[in-house]
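Dear colleague,

As promised, here are the two records you asked about, laid out in our usual form so they can be pasted straight into your sheet.

NAME FIELD: protein one
SEQUENCE, THEN STRUCTURE:
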Amino acid sequence: MPNNENSPVDEGLDVKKVLAELEVPFPPDQVRWRVMNTSNDKKRGQIVPYADPRAYTDRLNALFSPQGWTRTYRVETMNNITRMNKGEAMITGKVLVTCTVMIAGIGSHSGTGEEWADDPNAMTAADAQAFKRACAVFGLGRYFYDFVPPWIDLDQNRQPRRTPPLPVWAIPGNWRKGMRPLGRNGNSEPSASNNLGANGANGTEHAAVSQRGPSNDTNGRANGSSIPAPNNGHASAVTNGANGGAGSELDTRILQMEAAVGAVLYRNILREHGRVNQPKLIRELAMKQKVLRVLESAARGLGRLAAVTQRLDSTTVGTLLAKLQAPPLDQIADMKTLEHVVLGLEELAGPNPPHAA
């Protein structure tokens, strides 16, 4: 289906503007989710977003016309490779594909894809992977690499029971307004943790705690991650310190923050800033401190969220969430979304009314 949210590029636009338009995320209805890892009991899975190759083709056609770009492929094979499949060794091969995308007036980039030859869709999968990787060098689909893969419940077929809402920055309209994922503030936008920590909680953190309690489902957090603890093979004073008394105290404080911010937001912050699923796996003391600061900022943000929603009616709140294409308040799963929702609601509510003497 053609992408109606693409803006055709006129000949007068310069290369910089064209490349900026390529970077715009796909419309939400073109985003799909794939299960990459599962917990030991197979009830939870870690999913990543992607788009069909046709969405990439539609974007290129809309911006450059079908005559304005081309793609070429080179296919190679490797034979007699031993792989483990369901616990058994088997002799197979690999299909290797190199795709080169050329855009008239801009240049060309290549990407590679591979798949096991015993897969009945090996060529299709390797073709798509190579094409998307070549497009990502131009910026098209590059934003998928900025997602923090969430853990969600799976059905009996090991498919997501429901798909998570996209972060607000991954909506085309919001991207064009300058919203970016944490760590990619190309417009010098302050980070979510700084903005949410600026005003403090003003005594409202307890409201946030009661609003978002801890989750009883820990499979995705304890059992399912394939992300190893950072380890470069070198011991250091900082690493040793993280495993000592100071590190243990920080671990305890970090664990206590799960009740304050909710299980989903807690896990996402831990993965994004600590690259682990449990604080005890963080080797560096400085990184533990950073994770704790972000969690404390999230708690302050949730406190501000609880305070401002008491000053607004549900219709106003719902209208802003729809405008930002943000999830319901109790399903906010990342700091960037929390920041935009809090700041938007506070702007609507206006300054705090003066307290009576």
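NAME FIELD: protein two
SEQUENCE, THEN STRUCTURE:
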Amino acid sequence: MNDKVKLDRHGVIGVITVNSPPVNALSAAVRGGILECMKRAIADPEVKAIVLTCGGRTFIAGADITEFGKSPKSPDLDEVLTVIENSPKPIIAAIHGTALGGGLEVALACHYRVATKDAKLGLPEVKLGLLPGAGGTQRLPRAVGPELAVKMIVGGDPISAEVALKNGLIEEIVEGPAAGGESFARKVLDEKRPLRRLRDDDHKLQAAKADRSIFTNAVASMTKKSRGLEAPFAAADAVGCAIDLPFDEGLGKEREAFLKLVSSDQSKAQRHAFFAEREAAKVSGIPEGTKPRSPARRARSWRRGRSRTASSHWPARRSACRARPADVSSPSRFRRCSDKKCCWRAPRPAWRTCPALRTLPS
């Protein structure tokens, strides 16, 4: 247990809360905290069920991609997921906000999942030139079927809680993550539900095993706009391994493909672009959380500023235009000299056409 992850006991329910702002990314500290709290909760005889939830605005929103390309830090995510999946006590992932990438892979390793109605769940690694590297390509097809799994993994777009409920990715939609997770955990204990380990549940793969076109048609639909990209096709192959191979063998194939992609030039370029876009959106000196002004207000401010600027420069322009003094003696705001191309009535870009104004000091 560390300052990123804590374990509380509410009666017979152990509640593990991740609190690592802003998005509870799976850094080494978060992985270590989850692993330690899971081991403590599993070893505690007073704890009968475990709820994994997050503080702040979101569930675990993905891996810490700043660790990519660096020496791995212990514990790795596979070690954490193995402890979760092999727990003799039911573990419920209580999701709010977004469960993306490694966050959804953590939830898939839990025995049950609940989510708030506004939650989003997805595996968007393909948009960084990668594929899920901690069992996502093997567990998700077993949870929702290969067809939807291909759309989520190869397309990279998340689904809503309603779609997740309809397709069996979550068991319930709850009002609040922590309270809803605890309530569902007590229901599991009262009903003595068996633990559902996705690695051992192949029933949603049977249709695709009997009719391979279910899978191939989904892949063709999602990859037709991905020509030249490596990750979508590698991700599709990894999902195919879930259909064709036992879980552990498919997991090995997924890991091989992930390591190949993470070192590829294409993935490095996509990750560089991702970080560059995030950095470009930041403005130095602006406090975090500052809300942008509305477009209408910005337009009004621009007009007011333009008027003030024109007024403040008027004396300089009047005194500078000495080419034809008799023509600028009128008190009217819109003065002009005898040159029809002069600046006095022309738009700002035409100011330079006035010979007098070209002599203004810089």
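A couple of things worth noting about protein two: Strands lie at 5-10, 13-18, 49-54, 91-95, 98-100, 112-116, 120-122, 159-160, 172-174. Residues 307-336, 343-353, 357-362 have pLDDT under 50 and may be disordered.

Best,
R.
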